[in-house]
User: Fold these one by one.
Assistant:
Number 1:
Amino acid sequence: MSLIIDNLHLAREGIPHLDGVTAEFGHGSITAVIGRTLAGKTTLTRAIAGLQAVDGGSLRLDGKPFGGTPAWRRDVAMVYQQFINYPHLSVFENVAFPLRKRKVAAGEIARRVTAALEMVGLASFGTRRPTELSGGQQQRVALARALVRRAGILLLDEPLVNLDYKLREQLREEFRGLLKDQTGAIVIYNTTEPSEAMMLGNRIVVMHEGKVLQAGAPAEIFDRPASVQVARIVNDPPMNIFSGIIENGAILLAGGLRIPVAEHLASLPPGSYRFGIRAGELRVGGEGDASGKVTFSEVSGSETFVYAQAPFGDAVLQIEGVHAMANGTQLSISVAPDRLFAFSAEADGALLAAPVTGDAAWPK
Amino acid sequence: MPGLYSSLKYLAVALWSVFVVTPLLWALTTSFKTSNAVTGGPTYLPWLQYQPSLDGWRSLFGGAGGIDIVKPYMDSLIVTGSASLISIVLGTLAAYGLSRFDYRAGFIKNTDIVFFFISQRIMPPIVLAIPFFLMLQFLGLLDSKIGLILVYIALLLPIAVWIMVDFFDGVPRQIDEMAMLDGCTPFEAFLRVVLPNSLPGILVASMFCLVFGWNDFFFAFTLTFTDTQLLPVAVVALNSSVTPWWSLSASALISVAPLILCAFLVERLLSRGTLAGAIR
């Protein structure tokens, strides 16, 4: 019993928005759909909500086709990326709106709306107008309205993307608690951020250019990304990818860097590959394998992202702590052989070998 | 220098107020003057500079050498009011459709349809006089309120559509979609969510329609003869070989009164709390 999406197609003016999307979303679990902007996430949620007609494919809910049901008869609640509320109604009436439309008894409405507002921490804001609230509060109102209905399908389309960093972190925590309580509902959460997907999703679907690239448990996707594309999407900053060859029992990267073949890559035959390594697993300092030049660096929270030119290609490094790195600084970079992913050099960039898991740096 | 800025602001407002109010005050004093007082040079203060008289006002209500302004006044109210109301209702519905749904007939798309509406107002109105005359004649509606209402709808609808399309384009579509997901049919979404948030636009469009309709002289003049007479035509009929400035001033004042009332009302509504929070 689940929501099954089968081979959805949608193209507008020759640009495919959904290109044969097939996926399954189960009751009582949160599925995070991760993909970059324009990956087709929003189009997919709009198709599920009935707000977007598709060119081909079918939707089935618990075995029954529901592609033909109009949006207002689908049991779907949605939270938009923009903070969408009814500006002419008070916060209380905003949340009560879907219940009033469904002719729920007045006492029941008062009880459920109050509970929903309490849940999102806006119990004392019932009489205010949404436009008088801050962005985070407005999005909480929208969430309360989506939750109060106890809809069978709950869609969240990048609900935190328009909030500032601090508030995003805070709401993400709150969302996790609130969404876990939606027992029995099919929850689909769109995001561009790997950490959000990993934290909220029981399952993850990776989308790119209208296609589903991979679907599975968060650990599975993080530890064994099916392709170069997935590896870049589910890591932030994106995984570093370098071209190289395996010959004579060693990996030869561009610029003449030679590193030993670790055990997990031992079975790969000699030839061309693409090698991937996470930004946090490139080591800096000491007797490095190669020297790189800093082109740009930024501090994010308690970490520093350093963009450097290395002989084997442009690399992003994620270093613990706050470091001031002037552009042009020379860095000594070492590549840990046991942390390398090997991908096919072909266009599909399929995963051939992944490091042994265990101490992988999970995004927080 | 906030002090200087706000002083300048008030000075500008004061100057503008003088500019706006002076003609009205001028008309007010003139309406209480007699023939001699009008032609005897500029005077402003009643009793001191001239002897006020009610002749000008009496002439509007069947007094000597005057007209009975009540009937044309009512006719104007009925015609302008009905035409504006129908234009706003039809125009709002049409504008919502044009703003939200894609229409296509060959190469004609939504923007072309909107332009078609606006283009009705690009033509000089005089071009329409003969076609309107012939059409109303064919329908037997010449010299009737219904005929004028139809003509005014044709003239006011483009204004309503134009303003409302622009307004609806500024209301996020996601609001309609949200209402549909909350269980509203598309029409209910329009009625219960989009419309309440569009009141400012509707007020502005209504104001425009009322002003255009109320002030029209040309069609009111060419399409009516004796049975129906609208206010602007009746006012002009006051003018004979001697221009009765006192009667004209009085009629000008009561003609403009409903519009001033409307303007105040709209201003109040637009700035009041009920619409605060609505989408601009």
Number 2:
Amino acid sequence: MRRAAVIVLAVLAAALPWLLQALGLDFYLSLANRIVVAAIAATSLNLVLGYGGLVSFGHAAFVGLGAYATGILVSEGVTSGWAHLGATLLVAGVAALLIGAISLRTRGVYFIMITLAFAQMLFYLANSIKGYGGDEGLNIRARSVLGAGAFALDLKNPVVCYEAALVVLALVLAALARFVPSRFGRAVLAIRDDDLRAEALGFPTYRLKLVLFVAAGMLGGVAGALGVNQQGYVSPNVLHWTQSGTFMVMVILGGVASVWGGVIGAVVLLLLQEVLGAWTEYWAFWTGWVLLAAVLFARRGLAGLFAAR
Amino acid sequence: MAALLEVRGLVKRFGALVATDEVDLDVQAGEVHALIGPNGAGKTTLVAQLGGQLASDRGTIVFDGAAITRWTAHRRAQRGLVRSFQVTRLFGSASAHANVALAVQAVSGSSLRAWRPVALERALQARAHAVLAEIGLGARADAPVDALSHGERRALEVGMALASRPRLVLLDEPMAGLGHEESTRMEALVASLRATSAVLLIEHDVDAVFRLADRVSVLVGGRVITTGAPDAVRRDPTVIAAYLGEADEL
Amino acid sequence: MLVVEQALNGLQFGLMLFLLAAGLTLVFGVMDMINLAHGSLYMVGAFVAAWIAGRTGSFALGIAGSVLVTGLFGIVLEAGLLRTLYARDHLSQVLATFALILILNDGVKFVFGTDLPLSAPAAFDGPVELLPGLSYPSYRLLILGVGIVLAVLLWLLVQKTRLGALVRAGASNRTMATAMGVDIPKLFTLVFGIGAALCAVAGAFLGPLLAVQVGMGENILILAFVVIVIGGIGSIRGALVGAILVGCVDTLGRTALQHVFRAFLPPQWASAAGPAVASIAVYVFMAVVLAFRPQGLFPARG
């Protein structure tokens, strides 16, 4: 039954551009695209936050690094999508490796603070690179291009951009679904429950957490790369701690440690902002109340409300 | 014959308090070596240093020929030195079977596999079932750990340490908080361990200790005041004065 | 002389940071709650002060009024909402207080507008000559004075009064404090109210220097968190030392470091590297402190 629902959802999502066109609502494709990108970012955060139990307050930094890596390459004339992907994975991966290697030696609130601090450092760094926009941000004209010749997929086409993001999201969700019951997933959950006991049993907890952190960072970077393609623009604000906070809100709202948590959170939060934004200038105010209500009344996040148990 | 575990001159201080004071200790392969002593003697602190949860200030620990003094806890577990905890630490969100399966997984290959469900690993799951049966929890395999009784949780706690077939298992007060019948079962379990592992047993139940142990070491104020066969220790006047003489212990 | 001036600026900024950090460290140390909305209280304090000063023409009235209003607001907030979060996990607290930031940012915008002007009191408009050749803005001296007085008062409160003893007990061991019959709910409300009042003072005094605008809380909040992590969570003394250190590192980083860079690096590098390094100096400092003292400089928790 669930599998059928997922397939229907996937088909609907894939067909969305044409559905919107038929309804005369094409301008909502950009919103849909933003939602998909945010869902990837939130899901990547759920990996460390939900499953890993690591409250990383600097995840936006990896998203931002992916966006900047791609944006800078494009502004330098490199439009190959594969080059962008490679650079994104490398930059975000190395950053996550360095940040994780240091941060994971701390616990609790100190971990939160150190990840936050590193993210802020990158934020200020992005603010100061005058060559690529500095605090005003970077505009790009071209986009990532996958393939060549007649079969080239140019993400400048909004439909192609959207479908590419959707494919990535589908792959990420599929991988996550396989991750959870696997050795890695079980080990990570055990570490989250009781790090000390897991280590006493023989799990190399630091190593496992670091791999998880790097994987999440790389996925976050990919979200950023897709994001800059969608927006045509990246600014240091993407790396600000409040952006990390927004992703955290999506994860907590959608349901920590659940495969669909990031998606649900992204959909709900961004749709909420869109709907409220059309009605009032003070949409953040009402969004805040909805979030507050969610914390007070839905303890396991929205995914928990719909779950079987 | 070299001992399986050789501890020499172990020291641990917490500020002005010397919790472990030049401790020398040996555990031979295949023996049940008990460690007894009054409350506050530093037994758990010592076990934590042997298990790798606490770093010693001075001294050496040699296990199975390797100098493990600075090794992490997980490396020791991989080598065959495993510890159970005095305060039960289980993975609350999982079932009893899942808990044991984790213990087996930890020592059977890399956990960096993110594709195949662990539930499909036949050998691993079979071993987990076997361990559960050994500790008498075969029927409770699928029960969530939070639903188990205290006695069952203590048994599971020990089972987790056994799942990896360790060369030496450090049992930290396995009978803590157990009723009479459960204690008897735990005692039988510990006795059955002798076939496969050496045991360093920390316990307050002195009668059980003297029934189970091949040798007994007495820890008082962070120092080992004597080591020997149970009968000899039982009759040792210094031990009686320091520990066994306390009315509630006999 | 420039160094002296910058050092005084650092000290002054540090003392204001201390006011923010003191409340934050107490809330975190005593109630074990992550309060992201602490910066929003600072913002509310600044706006209320600016509004009152704008209406009455008196800076002093602005401060007094703001302390009262913000303190009361903090108490209402704590008793009405935040109290339910103490028992919840840190993630829920993050979500809820993040939501509060959204609500308060827009709320303030709705009531007061996106920004309000606030100028230093006329009496403190000009510079004062501290030493021959060294003149320093009298307003900043006022802030220094206020900061020192409040720091001493807080120290007295925490070290010498019964309330302070209760707070220290609660910070180091909450279960013990409860077991000893301390009226925890009232204590918490009071601690929170004091924290809010301190935020108001900082917001009002820094307003003329940093601009009173919506969102001003977010940036200073991070610095306040850095301060309490460096100082040790739950410790007022740690918050003071940490705040002064952070204030000085941040201020000197922006100025003195520029000179160092210009002396050693080619100009285009210096002008690019300068601001970047200045901003991250504080975080590097925090990382270094944590590397040697993972619990901060004066950890309160036993």
Number 3:
Amino acid sequence: MSSLLETPSDRLLAAVRQLLTAKGVVTREEIAERIRTTDNASPAQGARMVARAWVDAAYRARMLADGAKAAEELGIPMRGMPPLGVLEDTAGEHNVVVCTLCSCYPRAVLGYPPFWFKSAAYRARAVRDPRGLLLEFGTALPAWVKLRVVDSTADYRWMVLPLRPAGTEGWSEERLAAIVREGDMIGVTFPKLP
Amino acid sequence: MSTQTPVPDPSTLPEARPRAMHDMGGVSKFMCDAVDVEPHALDEFDREVDAIRGLLGAKKVMSVDELRRGIEAIPEGDYLRLSYYQRWIRSITDNMLAKGVFTEAELRAALEDTK
Amino acid sequence: MSALFPAGTSVRVRDDWPETRGACHIRTPHYLRGVRGVVEKHLGAFANPEDLAFARPAAVLNLYHVRFSPQAIWPDAQGDALVVELYETWLEAA
């Protein structure tokens, strides 16, 4: 292994960028375009899916059966993306997602993974102390709710379909989507009324 | 952590088997670490590294599996010290050298050029 | 690709440690080696990342969601179920 790998990262990036563009592997325009496209993916996408599932039982069923197809129904680009698994919360069981080996994340529907999701503390604690972990996010799970932790080790990417909070009866999909946050779709928090 | 169950001796746990250092699930030394829940926005460096990896994948030059392998090869001290995308650029460079996309000599020259 | 282990099958993760035999890329967490679980679902078939990671030809393998009890792994574990994606080559009937 080359000792050049120990060069400070910002210098590595500059050199790699120069070499890859000089050799025609990528162009600067492609890099800029890719950054722009990736910035378009955000938790708002996943939130729209959750809101639709809350008001439309048939959509919910389709989402649970094939998350990627359900995302595409709402115009979220999924071509070339890994399969999307949707974990349905019930009154008696709550799901939490982790990738202990690296940080596999449903980027197509949630955007870039948050800093905490990639941290050693999260990756280590989620599988062994999920209740303690949730407390770090201010989430105190009632003792009678079962906690189901899903470790993303392979080809699927997972998102949580949280329970619809009380007090939202009659709300429009748009209003519902607005209260669904990134952490709610990973399972570290629950959607709450503003 | 539960106050009723005594903390087990790590030498009796799966982490004492010959695991790779990145294989962190349940590992005792991290269990008392607080989680930094602050948002930490990505900077330009992060976004560009991410974009280059995505393009290398889309163009079938380097797969996500190869990226992960390269990250897992980083010595533990560096792995824990480097940020997420700092690990990525190191793995990308490692893979590009291994695949002969560019040579060490070319890399050295480019590092000089971009100083 | 027909699945070897239907939903509900008891399985054990092989107590194997390729990490001791040289460079490898393994997606079976250390904490599951030798542990018994129950198959929840066949998730489909995908190319083996252990080979993709080294740009080697990769066999397409069945992938399963398998449920474990965290207390069977760590005596002090919280949580009620731990569900992990595992490739067929890592599982044996238990």
Number 4:
Amino acid sequence: MKLPMVIVGILVGAVLGIAGIVIYPILGLLSPLLGMFIGACAGGVAGVFTLKYSVLSYQRSVEAKSTMCRLDAYFGIFAATIFGGILGLIATFWVLTILYGRMNHVQLLTGIAFGAFLGGFPTVIYVRRYIRELKEIQYAKYLVSLPENAGNLIKSIIGQMRYRKKVQDDVMAELAGHFEDELRDCKTNEEREQKARRLIEDFGDAKLLAVLLRRAKKRCRPLWRTVVARTFQTIGVLILCLALYTTWFLTGKPVISVDYLEIINQMSRPQITDTDNAWPHYEKAFSLLVEPNESLKRMAAFKNYREAVYLQFNKLTTTEQLEIRKWVEQNNAAWQEFAAGSLKPYSYRKVEYNEKDESDKMLWNIILPHLGTLSDLAKAGIWRCRMEIEQGQPHLAVADCLAIVRAGKHLQNNKMSTVEQLVGSSLAGLGCAEIEHIAATQDLSAEDLEQLGQQLTKIYPDGYPLTNLEGEKIMFLDVVQHLFTDGGPGGGHLIPKRFLDFELRTSGVHERPNEHLIVPYTATAMTHIRRDETIDKANEIYDQLNKTIKISPYDRHINRIKTSDEILTELPRYKYSLFHIFLPGSDRVSESELVYRGKTQYEATLTILALQQWQMEKGDYPETLNNLVESGYLKELPMDPFSDQPLVYKRTADNFTLYSVGLNFKDDGGQVYRDEKGKPQLWHDEFGDAVFWPVQKSEVEQ
Amino acid sequence: MKFEAQLLKGVAPAVVLEILSRGQMYGYELSQAIEQRSGDILTLGKGTLYPLLYNLEAKKLVKGRWEKADSGRKRRYYSITSKGKTQLAKQKEQLKELQAGLNVVFGGAFGIA
């Protein structure tokens, strides 16, 4: 075997591959393909040269009857195939990758397939030619004594048999032997020729005979060989089917047939005139908002403004007061717009896509930048409120708190986004907590308290809203129509590339994904349930979650109703990957603890105002909360969703305690949880009650 | 005599098994034996002989064995197996019944020896 020819083959392949790049400076798909093609051809040709020498070696080994020569020849053939053809291709690919950088998988696969096919084609032709020459040498051994026409018939039959070499040799030996025996008694060449012709006729059609012989010999092969052959055939068919299936799978495209954005906008739009819409005021407030500077953002009082220690403005340091005052004054105009907007009956904004690229226009991709801005405005309102209290203007402070609660209600009524609903609930809770602080520290008259209670009640005339998941379900259906094909088995399948892009985006990754990730995502997409089943499952889960939301946390705790996480653990990831990406974020929502906390806070605030009013009018606090309801101070008893009983009310000598049993569902006697620094935490997962009154201070303050 | 192909197709295996039951033979020898022992009535086409032998070998009714002939060339000799003998007996029985049936149909034309 001429080893240097193998190396020459690789070098020739690489050189011609590079030449392909230099000569055809067309960017994009063409050059890499052409380079691949040239490299593969070159590799194939190099392999052929090596093969030629190997075949000659084999010939010599047969003549020399040398096992070592034969092994050398076999190794040469093997090396030619592997090193000459495939490594030539790999060398070209390596050079192309260095010069072009990473190629996408379509370019790579197409280039390899195209180049390998055309590169291998001349190899196959030359190999067949040399194998034929080998056979001629072998045939000569059996057919040398036969007439030419007989020899041709036998060669034709054997050639068309297309079976293992050993079997062909055996059949050739038998047929040649038969002819020799038949022609043995012929005395002259003419006689031999004539008899041979008759015999050839008797043998009949060579092709038919070849087929019959092949079939019969196949039946003779041992069972294990049949099993192995069938197994390889099956594997080959399966690989081909898998390749075709994968190609069909990868090339699927979604059909966007439903405008869910319009559905969401229609769903959210109330039947009231545009002049009653708060949104234009909020938009103006956003544009007027002056964001806090870095110094303010770093300030502990500013960051932790909800802590009891910062409730009184005059307790801040001079520097803190100056900086906060300055920022609040800068945002006076923004606040006025905000407050004006909060007085409107509703807030509606038409949702638009942020994305320019059509393929990215999904409800999922819509960003909600205004939520951060609204929170900043609410913070400005809270500081205004505290400054007004310091200035002896509690009525102005109360008005500011009510504006925050009303703005929170606007967000809670938004059906599109559960995130907005949660932010709304948080804003409303912020306003209510501040009102409680005002009631605790300011001398409000009974009338003031009654009015305040009525205004708070008017904000939620239909009761405190719980989470609405309709918008989220519609968002999921929109994701489905963007990630699945439409039609075919099961209604459509998950498209691997779009699924990959979606998950990366969900994780916050915006750079171009690694193309190798397409392989595991293709496998995941193939095992994922189909479109129709996905939609049915989504409907089932959201129906279940919507029912769960209406059940109080205590009821869910007692009856062990499944949370979103528990629902997800029952769904195997390989079949329900999309659900595992989409659902976890809504776990809190489905449990709606945050919303029930907000509801409890709101009802506690109303109760506190009613109790204070009672005390002012009657000189003492009532014995039970029922007294408030019976006397019309409250419309109904405030229920604790964490016990399914009324909030706990304990009258003391000149005060009272009002609390919820909290997230551990246990009555801890009105003791709030305090962290290692003594700061109270209203809602702790394991310890303590959520005490609304008296307003909790840190241990240092106490 | 040249028979209809379909007519001979059914009996060819039985004929070959019967001939081989009397001793092993190679292909050419077998084709000559068929002609001679049937009084030149039956001839098996060469295009039929070898596929038939290989099929019988696949069914394990005969087995083949290479031997070196005097000329130095190798020859494949075929011999009947015990399974082949059982099959032959069964087919002979069926042929007898067939012959009896045909006799009745054709009014004793075939005669029973």
